[in-house]
Amino acid sequence: MLTAVLSLVLAAPASQMYYEQSVRMTRGGQPAGSATSKVYWSGRRIRMESGDGVLLLQLDTGQAFRLVPAQKLVVELDVERLRSRAQLDLATASDALDAGQDANVRSAPSGPTRSVAGYVCQPHRVRTATASFEVCVSRTVPVGMEAFTEYLQWSGASDALPGLVEALQRLAGFPLETRARVEVDGAVYETTSTITKLVVGPQPVTLFEPPAGWRLEHEAAEEEEP
Predict the structure, then answer these.
(1) What is the 3-class SS of 84-132, one letter each residue?
(2) Terminal-residue alpha carbon distance, the chain
(3) CA 185 to CA 182: how far, in whole Å?
(4) Do the beta carbons of residue 173 and residue 207 sit within 8 Å?
(5) 173-223 pLDDT, tens per residue?
(6) Which DSSP helix (H) or strand (E) runs through 166?
(7) Do strands 73-76 and 215-218 pair parallel, antiparallel, or not at all (unpaired)?
(8) Domain 2-218 class?
(9) Domain ranges in the chain?
(10) Which of 28, 147, 163, 212 lies deepest, with the highest CB count within 10 Å?
Protein backbone atom coordinates (compact mmCIF):
# COMPACT_ATOMS: atom_id res chain seq x y z
CA MET A 1 0.00 0.00 0.00
CA LEU A 2 2.83 2.42 0.73
CA THR A 3 4.20 1.92 -2.78
CA ALA A 4 0.76 2.72 -4.13
CA VAL A 5 0.58 5.95 -2.17
CA LEU A 6 3.97 7.04 -3.46
CA SER A 7 3.37 6.17 -7.09
CA LEU A 8 -0.35 6.31 -7.87
CA VAL A 9 -2.11 9.52 -8.78
CA LEU A 10 -5.89 9.77 -8.88
CA ALA A 11 -6.63 11.70 -12.07
CA ALA A 12 -9.38 14.28 -12.25
CA PRO A 13 -12.39 13.28 -14.41
CA ALA A 14 -10.95 15.03 -17.50
CA SER A 15 -7.56 13.35 -17.05
CA GLN A 16 -7.48 9.66 -17.82
CA MET A 17 -4.41 7.47 -18.12
CA TYR A 18 -2.86 4.04 -18.30
CA TYR A 19 0.53 3.01 -17.00
CA GLU A 20 2.67 -0.02 -16.37
CA GLN A 21 4.80 -0.24 -13.26
CA SER A 22 7.55 -2.48 -11.96
CA VAL A 23 8.50 -2.86 -8.29
CA ARG A 24 11.76 -4.35 -7.00
CA MET A 25 12.49 -5.02 -3.33
CA THR A 26 15.69 -5.85 -1.45
CA ARG A 27 16.47 -6.70 2.18
CA GLY A 28 20.00 -6.16 3.34
CA GLY A 29 21.08 -5.69 -0.27
CA GLN A 30 19.67 -9.06 -1.35
CA PRO A 31 16.69 -9.48 -3.72
CA ALA A 32 13.46 -9.85 -1.74
CA GLY A 33 10.84 -9.90 -4.47
CA SER A 34 9.52 -8.13 -7.53
CA ALA A 35 6.19 -7.43 -9.13
CA THR A 36 4.66 -5.78 -12.16
CA SER A 37 1.27 -4.15 -12.51
CA LYS A 38 -0.94 -2.30 -14.94
CA VAL A 39 -3.04 0.60 -13.74
CA TYR A 40 -5.90 2.38 -15.51
CA TRP A 41 -7.44 5.62 -14.22
CA SER A 42 -10.69 7.19 -15.37
CA GLY A 43 -11.84 9.96 -13.10
CA ARG A 44 -12.99 8.30 -9.89
CA ARG A 45 -12.58 4.76 -11.21
CA ILE A 46 -9.41 2.69 -11.02
CA ARG A 47 -8.45 -0.68 -12.46
CA MET A 48 -5.32 -2.41 -11.11
CA GLU A 49 -4.00 -5.59 -12.72
CA SER A 50 -1.33 -7.60 -10.92
CA GLY A 51 -0.42 -11.26 -11.25
CA ASP A 52 -3.55 -13.21 -12.17
CA GLY A 53 -6.01 -10.85 -10.47
CA VAL A 54 -7.74 -7.54 -11.18
CA LEU A 55 -9.08 -5.00 -8.70
CA LEU A 56 -11.76 -2.50 -9.71
CA LEU A 57 -12.27 0.43 -7.36
CA GLN A 58 -15.25 2.70 -8.01
CA LEU A 59 -15.03 5.70 -5.71
CA ASP A 60 -18.07 7.24 -7.39
CA THR A 61 -20.40 4.36 -6.45
CA GLY A 62 -18.61 3.17 -3.32
CA GLN A 63 -18.06 -0.31 -4.77
CA ALA A 64 -15.06 -2.55 -5.35
CA PHE A 65 -14.67 -5.82 -7.23
CA ARG A 66 -12.01 -8.48 -7.64
CA LEU A 67 -11.94 -10.20 -11.03
CA VAL A 68 -10.63 -13.74 -11.51
CA PRO A 69 -10.32 -14.06 -15.31
CA ALA A 70 -9.37 -17.76 -15.27
CA GLN A 71 -12.72 -18.57 -13.64
CA LYS A 72 -14.76 -15.74 -15.19
CA LEU A 73 -15.58 -14.78 -11.62
CA VAL A 74 -16.47 -11.39 -10.11
CA VAL A 75 -16.18 -11.02 -6.34
CA GLU A 76 -17.90 -7.95 -4.91
CA LEU A 77 -15.75 -6.75 -2.03
CA ASP A 78 -16.71 -5.16 1.26
CA VAL A 79 -15.47 -1.63 0.58
CA GLU A 80 -15.31 -0.61 4.24
CA ARG A 81 -13.25 -3.70 5.03
CA LEU A 82 -10.93 -2.95 2.09
CA ARG A 83 -10.56 0.64 3.25
CA SER A 84 -9.88 -0.45 6.83
CA ARG A 85 -7.11 -2.77 5.65
CA ALA A 86 -5.53 0.06 3.68
CA GLN A 87 -5.70 2.38 6.68
CA LEU A 88 -4.16 -0.24 8.97
CA ASP A 89 -1.29 -0.82 6.52
CA LEU A 90 -0.63 2.91 6.31
CA ALA A 91 -0.79 3.39 10.06
CA THR A 92 1.86 0.68 10.40
CA ALA A 93 3.95 2.39 7.71
CA SER A 94 3.60 5.72 9.50
CA ASP A 95 5.10 4.25 12.65
CA ALA A 96 8.02 2.75 10.70
CA LEU A 97 8.69 5.91 8.65
CA ASP A 98 8.07 8.50 11.35
CA ALA A 99 5.98 10.46 8.84
CA GLY A 100 3.03 11.39 11.04
CA GLN A 101 1.56 14.74 11.98
CA ASP A 102 4.69 16.08 13.70
CA ALA A 103 7.21 14.63 11.25
CA ASN A 104 10.10 16.81 10.13
CA VAL A 105 10.04 15.88 6.43
CA ARG A 106 12.61 17.60 4.23
CA SER A 107 13.04 17.54 0.45
CA ALA A 108 15.50 18.95 -2.08
CA PRO A 109 16.62 18.28 -5.68
CA SER A 110 19.14 15.44 -5.67
CA GLY A 111 20.67 15.32 -9.13
CA PRO A 112 20.35 16.15 -12.83
CA THR A 113 17.16 15.48 -14.77
CA ARG A 114 16.77 12.14 -16.51
CA SER A 115 14.26 10.24 -18.62
CA VAL A 116 11.76 7.70 -17.26
CA ALA A 117 9.09 6.15 -19.50
CA GLY A 118 9.88 8.75 -22.15
CA TYR A 119 9.34 11.76 -19.86
CA VAL A 120 11.95 14.06 -18.36
CA CYS A 121 11.89 14.04 -14.57
CA GLN A 122 13.76 15.76 -11.75
CA PRO A 123 14.99 13.61 -8.83
CA HIS A 124 14.27 14.88 -5.33
CA ARG A 125 15.50 13.52 -2.02
CA VAL A 126 12.79 13.31 0.64
CA ARG A 127 13.84 12.44 4.19
CA THR A 128 12.13 11.62 7.46
CA ALA A 129 13.82 10.74 10.74
CA THR A 130 13.94 7.03 9.86
CA ALA A 131 13.65 6.80 6.07
CA SER A 132 14.78 8.37 2.83
CA PHE A 133 13.13 8.46 -0.58
CA GLU A 134 14.25 9.54 -4.00
CA VAL A 135 11.27 10.65 -6.05
CA CYS A 136 11.72 11.53 -9.72
CA VAL A 137 8.86 13.85 -10.67
CA SER A 138 7.92 15.13 -14.10
CA ARG A 139 6.17 18.41 -14.81
CA THR A 140 5.67 17.43 -18.44
CA VAL A 141 3.05 14.78 -17.60
CA PRO A 142 -0.33 16.58 -17.83
CA VAL A 143 -1.56 15.22 -14.49
CA GLY A 144 -0.33 16.62 -11.18
CA MET A 145 -0.25 15.65 -7.53
CA GLU A 146 -3.16 17.99 -6.78
CA ALA A 147 -5.44 15.35 -8.32
CA PHE A 148 -4.28 12.85 -5.70
CA THR A 149 -6.55 14.13 -2.94
CA GLU A 150 -9.58 11.84 -3.01
CA TYR A 151 -7.60 8.59 -3.15
CA LEU A 152 -5.36 9.79 -0.33
CA GLN A 153 -8.38 10.56 1.79
CA TRP A 154 -10.11 7.27 0.95
CA SER A 155 -7.03 5.15 1.72
CA GLY A 156 -6.25 7.04 4.94
CA ALA A 157 -2.86 8.24 3.72
CA SER A 158 -3.72 11.90 4.39
CA ASP A 159 -4.22 11.05 8.07
CA ALA A 160 -1.49 8.42 8.55
CA LEU A 161 1.31 10.06 6.54
CA PRO A 162 0.52 13.79 6.48
CA GLY A 163 4.14 14.95 6.56
CA LEU A 164 5.17 12.72 3.67
CA VAL A 165 2.04 13.46 1.64
CA GLU A 166 2.50 17.21 2.00
CA ALA A 167 6.15 16.94 0.94
CA LEU A 168 5.18 14.97 -2.18
CA GLN A 169 2.46 17.47 -3.07
CA ARG A 170 4.95 20.35 -2.83
CA LEU A 171 7.09 18.71 -5.52
CA ALA A 172 4.42 19.70 -8.08
CA GLY A 173 4.93 16.90 -10.58
CA PHE A 174 3.95 13.35 -11.47
CA PRO A 175 6.09 10.68 -9.69
CA LEU A 176 7.60 8.42 -12.35
CA GLU A 177 10.03 6.59 -10.07
CA THR A 178 10.29 6.22 -6.30
CA ARG A 179 13.14 4.64 -4.39
CA ALA A 180 12.47 4.10 -0.70
CA ARG A 181 15.01 3.08 1.93
CA VAL A 182 13.79 2.15 5.40
CA GLU A 183 15.57 0.57 8.37
CA VAL A 184 13.37 -1.64 10.56
CA ASP A 185 14.74 -3.64 13.51
CA GLY A 186 18.28 -3.32 12.17
CA ALA A 187 17.43 -4.53 8.67
CA VAL A 188 17.54 -2.20 5.64
CA TYR A 189 14.67 -2.53 3.19
CA GLU A 190 14.75 -0.85 -0.21
CA THR A 191 11.90 -0.63 -2.70
CA THR A 192 12.14 0.82 -6.19
CA SER A 193 8.92 1.53 -8.05
CA THR A 194 9.30 2.56 -11.70
CA ILE A 195 6.70 3.47 -14.31
CA THR A 196 7.84 1.82 -17.53
CA LYS A 197 5.02 2.99 -19.80
CA LEU A 198 2.61 5.90 -19.47
CA VAL A 199 -0.20 6.94 -21.80
CA VAL A 200 -2.45 9.90 -20.93
CA GLY A 201 -5.83 9.89 -22.67
CA PRO A 202 -9.34 8.40 -22.64
CA GLN A 203 -9.71 4.80 -21.45
CA PRO A 204 -12.52 2.37 -22.46
CA VAL A 205 -15.45 2.60 -20.04
CA THR A 206 -15.83 -1.20 -20.01
CA LEU A 207 -12.44 -1.61 -18.31
CA PHE A 208 -13.89 -0.24 -15.08
CA GLU A 209 -17.01 -2.40 -14.94
CA PRO A 210 -17.39 -6.10 -14.06
CA PRO A 211 -17.65 -8.08 -17.33
CA ALA A 212 -21.18 -9.06 -18.34
CA GLY A 213 -21.98 -12.75 -18.08
CA TRP A 214 -19.37 -13.57 -15.41
CA ARG A 215 -20.43 -15.33 -12.20
CA LEU A 216 -20.94 -12.91 -9.31
CA GLU A 217 -20.10 -13.73 -5.71
CA HIS A 218 -19.90 -11.61 -2.56
CA GLU A 219 -16.85 -11.49 -0.35
CA ALA A 220 -17.15 -13.91 2.54
CA ALA A 221 -17.70 -12.30 5.92
CA GLU A 222 -14.80 -12.45 8.32
CA GLU A 223 -15.27 -14.73 11.26
CA GLU A 224 -15.41 -13.00 14.63
CA GLU A 225 -12.67 -13.87 17.08
CA PRO A 226 -13.89 -15.85 20.11
Answers:
(1) HHHHHHHHHHHHHHCCCCCCCCEEEECCCCEEECCEEEEEEEEECCCEE
(2) 29
(3) 10
(4) no
(5) 888 998 888 777 788 888 899 999 999 889 999 999 999 999 999 998 664
(6) helix 162-170
(7) parallel
(8) mainly beta
(9) 2-218
(10) 163
